[in-house]
Amino acid sequence: MRVLAVDTATEACSVALLSGDELIGRFAEGGRTHEQQILGMVEAVLAEAQVSLSMLDGIAASIGPGAFTGVRISVAVAQGLAFGAGLPTVPVTTLEALASQVMRGGAAHALACLDARMGEVYWACFAVDRGRGLGWSSAPRVGPPASVVLPVPGVYRGIGRGLAAYPALAALPGLDFDPKDGRALPNAREFATLGALRLALGEGLDPADLSPLYLRDKVALTEAERRQQKAQ
Fold first, then answer.
1. 138 burial class (0-12, 13-18, 19+ CB within 10 angstroms)?
2. Domain span at residue 128?
3. pTM of the prediction?
4. Could you tell me if 187 and 14 are in contact, meaning their C-beta atoms sit under 8 angstroms apart?
5. Which CATH number do you get for residue 10?
6. Neighbours of 47 (CB within 10 A)
7. Separation CA 158–CA 143 (nearest Å)
8. Residue among 145, 121, 149, 120 nearest 137 (CA)
């Protein structure tokens, strides 16, 4: 199976192509904007693999949660490429892609946590699912760090910059957290792998049905809210 994956939902911009057992990727943080980089990355991985869009089985799209503009770019690029080549799309969340990094390393349960700014985090818990790569143990949520809870007894491996931004989260009972995982961001390599599993299960969508996962509508704090947060 050949699956192209694109992700621009967080600080990182990445593209990956899964072609059989080969996985080719590009990853960048900082520098040019995601909008300026993403299509060049797509061209680069396709050229390296000597594959055209028409030869793909589908496109895995990062649907968030993450930065509003980044999520929109990711979804729009996936839709545009898929429409042009007549391909199905498959949605994968940033939290799933994060959790997959530690679960691929052997963790049975994971807590994925991204810094949502404004004193909040995006988070969700996961368990291994052999058919789909992983399954939700809790729904994706946004809220203050104090709202993060592990849903069932067991050891959860923590990953994501939300844990680094709010160190108190690392002390959650039942959480196994390596500080190096606090630097992790979603990577299109994980989106491609998860996307291939779901395409094989018949979960591909018409590009028109692909939609972002925002979790919240608010993008900034008011001046009064910033003062209150600073005082706290």
1. middle
2. 94-183
3. 0.91
4. yes
5. 3.30.420.40
6. 11
7. 17
8. 149
